[in-house]
Write a structure and sequence with these properties.
With 133 residues, the protein is mostly beta strands. The chain has 1 helix and 11 strands, in the order E-E-E-E-E-H-E-E-E-E-E-E. The longest helix is centred in the middle third of the chain and has 5 residues, at 53-57. It starts with a strand and ends with a strand.
Length: 133
């Protein structure tokens, strides 16, 4: 059974940084696309970032980032520890949201599907990030 447990959220001032962690279990990283979504109540979910060993093996080494990230976030994974991370720098109040770790093996690449319709099968419980102005 796929399990994803996020941690690292909290309250930070504008311009600050947070590092989100996702402890994954029950599956092999090589078979999955891994990523982060975020959601604000009353708004649509936003796909924040994605990383995939499949992409790395195929030399498509660039992770996916939503346009709103603009170089401020960095996704990484540690296959040995089954961990996925999202380093968030230069945080803005509009980054305030619940952040969810996601995984999907139906399409193990971060690319090839319109980001507007990309769906991930497995979700964590979420961690709250609040950026104060």
């Amino acid at each position: 059974e796929v399990q994803l447990v996020e941690s690292g959220g909290g309250l930070v001032q504008t311009g600050g940084s947070l590092r989100l962690s996702c402890a994954a279990s029950g599956f092999r990283f090589d078979d999955y696309a891994l990523g982060w979504f975020r959601q604000v109540p009353g708004k649509e979910r936003e796909w924040v970032s994605c990383i995939s060993n499949s992409d790395i093996r195929d030399s498509k080494t660039r992770p996916y980032y939503g346009d709103f990230v603009k170089g401020r976030f960095t996704i990484s994974s540690d296959n040995a520890k089954n961990m996925v991370y999202l380093q968030m720098d230069s945080l803005k109040p509009e980054d305030t949201a619940v952040y969810y770790c996601v995984a999907d093996n139906r399409w193990p690449s971060c690319w090839g599907i319109d980001p507007k319709v990309r769906v991930f099968k497995s979700w964590g419980q979420g961690t709250q990030v609040t950026v104060s102005s």
